Amino acid sequence: xxxxxxxxxxxxxxxxxxxxxxxxxxxxxxxxxxxxxxxxxxxxxxxxxxxxxxxxxxxxxxxxxxxxxxxxxxxxxxxxxxxxxxxxxxxxxxxxxxxxxxxxxxxxxxxxxxxxxxxxxxxxxxxxxxxxxxxxxxxxxxxxxxxxxxxxxxxxxxxxxxxxxxxxxxxxxxxxxxxxxxxxxxxxxxxxxxxxxxxxxxxxxxxxxxxxxxxxxxxxxxxxxxxxxxxxxxxxxxxxxxxxxxxxxxxxxxxxxxxxxxxxxxxxxxxxxxxxxxxxxxxxxxxx
Length: 288
Prior knowledge:
Strand 1, helix 2 and strand 2 form a beta-alpha-beta unit. The chain has 3 domains: 37 residues, no CATH class; 129 residues, CATH 3.30.1330.90; 75 residues, Alpha-Beta Plaits (2-Layer Sandwich), CATH 3.30.70. The strands form 3 sheets. Strands 4-3-5-6-7-8 form a 6-stranded mixed β-sheet. It has 8 helices and 12 strands. The relative contact order is 0.11. The chain is elongated and about 95 Å long. It is α+β, with helices and mostly antiparallel strands. Helices cover 31% and strands 28% of the residues. Helix 4 packs parallel to helix 5.
């Protein structure tokens, strides 16, 4: 480089990092040229770059405070170097699946199996962290985020098993959660349509299609005529509007699983009235 500078082969050179720091005598020979700019590894320390760094730090602090993903967290239990934008819907879904199963079945399980299928399987670590955040938040008074959730789960004696498969059975990408203890096993699963629209598609043995947002009344009932009308009559009497309805069942005339998206929260009285309907086996209000 020195010889080419002497011959005028370079119009100018800018160096910020040297092979030896501080520069030795060989490197210092470059100092004699007027058309060379040298800086002690602070080339990015401009007014513009400092503004950009400050904005980036502020954005990440806001993300951390709101429990969202922090790209540059040094203590995160996982890393994502690329492809984050492509899995945001699945991360949101994983958190909602965690919150759903806790509200629907309870947060007392000692073994949680996180199964990730399809192309998203390489992101099983962040998906698990988001699921644990959703699972633990409803049952704890302390703030839970994607950083501390895996450690809190470990402290509570919860065994976390992560598995991956090449492709889902009914969907190319699928997240399936199995919660176990000595008495029972519960399942919830879902996907993101077009990689952007999260949906809960599986609750225990029932295939269904639920938007994981807002107030959801989930109930098991005898699969006979008139059940939805009776539930709707209770809600109407209390001025609760139904925004959507989904039904899942395995066999005609047996047991069905219903999910009503509601515009407002239920109170204890309304929920008790619904549970008193003879055909209703159990009912839960889920808030996502």
